[in-house]
Design a protein that fits this description.
single chain; mainly alpha; 6 helices; 61% helix
């Protein structure tokens, strides 16, 4: 076996080991992430702001998308996720919320493109809807919070009219 082949083989094995080890290391960090209490008044304000931006989406979709991105970032910071950079915050969020983080990433990327007027309204609506599950996870009362909000009530909407099923925390 040549030296080049051996080096390639070792590099491939190291890469495969990284794929196996990295998720478990990140999952191990889950307990290290501080999650701050969020008073019920703050949770109610965040929920009201989210509902308000959803209502304004029809008249100003770009504004609503950028505001949702800012609001979700501020809520994450208030919950104790890193404030230094969006990359660190998203990385930390992905540990505790691996299923919901992709919606936030999509919203964040779409909000950046809104400034360049490169985004269709329907794609902006889809990004806003995709980010809502993470928002709901962060704004939901946690065991260490003061007084819990009532649990969100899912509502079925008429799909033929372009509405989204299972929408919570305000109408859209």
């Amino acid at each position: 076996m040549s030296t080049v082949t051996l080096i390639i083989l070792l590099a491939a094995l190291a890469a495969m080991a990284g794929l196996v080890i990295a998720p478990s290391v990140r999952q191990g960090r889950k307990g290290e992430l501080p999650v701050r209490s969020l008073p019920s008044e703050a949770r109610e304000q965040y929920a009201a702001r989210w509902a308000g931006l959803q209502e304004r989406f029809v008249d100003s979709p770009g504004w609503a998308l950028r505001e949702a991105d800012r609001l979700l970032g501020a809520l994450a910071v208030d919950r104790g996720y890193p404030a230094e950079s969006e990359e660190k915050r998203m990385d930390a969020l992905s540990v505790r919320h691996p299923e919901e983080i992709e919606g936030y990433r999509r919203l964040h990327a779409m909000a950046a493109r809104v400034h360049e007027n490169e985004t269709a309204t329907e794609r902006m609506r889809e990004a806003l809807v995709a980010a809502r599950p993470l928002f709901e996870q962060l704004v939901r009362a946690q065991p260490h919070d003061e007084r819990p909000l009532p649990p969100p009530v899912p509502r079925q909407r008429d799909l033929r009219r372009g509405r989204v099923p299972g929408q919570r925390l305000g109408s859209f």
